[in-house]
């Protein structure tokens, strides 16, 4: 695994389906990115057990970025399927929405892909790995013929001016390009459309708890016919007296 002081490779990054052999590394990566202790319960982070559950529930939606030179996991992405109405904001917190980390809210027939989590090791950030992981998700969306992908974007630069700028104005400025948010701006550039502001989305001071619901539609989506069961004719039995 990557150790402090070990140089980050700039090539040989592979995007692979998540597998059990990487579960412990995935836990360590999430702890490193968010500066969390996996031994502490209720800190809203995924452990190896969570990642194994994700692979069991929806294997098609789980990917890792691996530096093949060292067989080190340097990025992760987690997804699930949901039912989604673009006209109605998703107001649940992130942790509640994803079944408190276990993805027991995954809907096998859900028509939308929901981006649960995506993270890249600090030493590997700025190298396009996050975009590669997003592309893997979007390819999954197209392959499964889903309507699109939904994600909650934490506005992680908002804390710098949260005391003086209302969140609605901040998000409007980011959308218009007048401000740069280190997360929301990047997702907009990838083609995601901001839909609704979600209060109490995360327990995170960087975004003051706010998330922005993001959506990208699948231009290749093909509507599926609704299969209806044939109605059986009613057969009246003669009444025997």
Uncertain runs with pLDDT below 50, 5 residues or more? 1-9
Class from secondary-structure proportions? alpha+beta
Q: Helix and strand string, N-terminal first?
A: EHHEEHEHEHHEE
**Strands side by side in the biggest sheet:** 1-2-3-4-5-7-6
What's the count of strands?
7
Biggest sheet character: 7 strands, mixed
Helix count? 6
Describe the structure.
With 241 residues, the chain is of the alpha+beta class. It has helices spanning 23-34, 48-57, 94-97, 129-143, 167-176, 184-189, and strands at residues 13-17, 63-67, 72-82, 112-120, 148-154, 193-198, 211-217. A seven-stranded mixed beta sheet has the order 1-2-3-4-5-7-6, with helices on both faces. It is globular, with a radius of gyration of 21 Å. Residues 1-9 have low confidence and may be disordered.
Keywords:
alpha+beta; Aminopeptidase; 6 helices; disordered N terminus
List the helices and strands and how they pair.
Elements: E1 13-17, H1 23-34, H2 48-57, E2 63-67, E3 72-82, H3 94-97, E4 112-120, H4 129-143, E5 148-154, H5 167-176, H6 184-189, E6 193-198, E7 211-217
Parallel strand pairs: 4-5
Antiparallel strand pairs: 1-2, 2-3, 3-4, 5-7, 6-7
Brief digest:
The chain is an alpha+beta fold and 241 residues long.
